[in-house]
Design brief:
single chain; about 290 residues; alpha/beta; eight-stranded mixed beta sheet; 8 strands; about 45% helix; binds zinc ion
C-alpha cells in the first residue's frame, strides 16, 4: 500500500496495471519539480525503456504546477484550473512515453523550497522503496531555479535515508534551467538521445499550456540536444544527433557525510581551472609588453 502525504496526490498508470506492481517494475525513475521537467531532462530514461518489456520508466513530480505563467487559451485560468491542466498534460506524456507510472505528489512549490518540511522527502523515499529503480534522474545542483534545486536536495536526502542495499546504483542531475555544457568533458555524463526524434517532440509538445505561456520549451529542448551533440568534444556530430548532459550525483547519494556544496564546488573549480589554464597557456609572455 502506497500512502502519499497529500490527499490530492495521484499515481497514474497508463496501462492500468494495479499498484504497487505497476511501480515495482520500474528500472529508471525521474524525479522533477514541474510538469514537463521530466520530458526535458530525463529523455534518456524514457527512451531507454520505450517499447521494452524488461525496462520501465516512472516519473515523479513534486509540485502541483499551479503557479505557472499563462497566456493565450489559458490566459484567464485560475491557479486551480492550471493545476488540473498541467496534471492532464503530464498524464498525456506518460501515455505517449509508455511510462510504468506517473506520480503527482501535488505539493505547492513553497513546500519544496522550505528545507524544514519533511513530507516530500518521505514521499520520495517511499516511492523509491517500492519502485527500486537502478537509475534515478533529477535536477542538477547548479540549476538556477530554486524549486529544481530544492527537489534535487530532497532526492539526495531521501536516498541517503534508505538502507544501502535499497539505494539506486546511479543518480544523475540533469539539465533544465541552465545546461551542463560548462562541465569539463571528463565530468560530463553524456546521454545519446539521437533516436525517436518524433517521439521526443511529441513528449515535449503535449505541454501546450507551457508553450502557450510564451516559452517554446519544445523547440529549445530539441535545439539543446542537437547543440550538445555537435559541440561535445569527443563525438562525431554525424554519429550522434542528440545529446543531454548530466552531473553525476552518485557519490553524494552513496556517502551521507559528503558535503553537497563542496561536491558542487569541485565541478566549478575544475571548470575554472580549465579556463584559466588555457588563458595562461595561450597568453603572450610578459616580456613582450
Ligand atoms: Zn521546472
Amino acid at each position: 500500500m502506497i500512502e502519499l502525504k497529500r490527499d490530492t496526490a495521484e499515481i497514474f498508470v497508463p496501462d492500468g496495471m494495479p499498484l504497487p506492481a505497476a511501480l515495482a517494475r520500474t528500472t529508471h525513475m525521474a524525479i522533477g519539480a514541474h510538469q514537463d521537467d521530466l520530458e526535458i531532462m530525463a529523455i534518456d530514461g524514457i527512451l531507454s525503456c520505450f517499447q521494452r518489456e524488461d525496462r520501465w520508466f516512472s516519473g515523479v513530480l513534486v509540485t502541483d504546477g499551479s503557479g505557472a505563467p499563462r497566456d493565450g487559451l489559458y490566459r484567464n485560468y485560475t491557479d486551480e484550473a492550471m493545476r488540473r491542466v498541467r496534471a492532464k498534460e503530464q498524464k498525456k506524456a506518460a501515455l505517449v512515453g509508455e511510462y510504468a507510472a506517473q506520480v503527482l505528489l501535488d505539493y505547492p512549490s513553497a513546500a519544496v523550497k522550505d528545507g524544514a518540511t519533511p513530507d516530500p522527502v518521505q514521499d520520495i523515499a517511499q516511492l523509491l522503496t517500492v519502485a527500486r529503480p537502478a537509475i534515478v534522474y533529477t535536477h542538477n545542483l547548479a540549476d538556477e531555479h530554486d524549486t529544481h534545486v530544492g527537489v534535487a536536495l530532497r532526492v539526495v536526502a531521501a536516498i541517503r535515508g534508505l538502507p544501502e542495499t535499497a539505494r539506486p546504483s546511479r543518480l544523475y542531475g540533469c539539465e533544465v534551467w541552465r545546461d551542463l555544457d560548462w562541465l569539463v568533458d571528463r565530468d560530463k555524463v553524456a546521454f545519446d538521445c539521437s533516436a525517436h526524434k518524433s517521439l521526443q517532440r511529441a513528449l515535449l509538445g503535449v505541454f501546450d499550456s507551457q508553450i502557450c505561456g510564451g516559452k517554446r520549451y519544445d523547440l529549445a529542448s530539441m535545439g539543446r540536444r542537437r547543440a550538445n551533440a555537435t559541440y561535445h568534444a569527443t563525438h562525431e556530430a554525424d554519429a550522434v544527433s542528440g545529446m543531454t548532459f548530466a552531473m553525476d550525483l552518485t557519490p553524494l547519494m552513496q556517502d551521507g557525510a559528503m558535503s553537497i556544496p563542496d561536491y558542487v564546488q569541485a565541478f566549478m573549480d575544475r571548470f575554472a581551472r580549465d579556463v584559466q589554464a588555457r588563458l595562461a597557456r595561450l597568453s603572450p609572455p610578459r616580456s613582450f609588453d
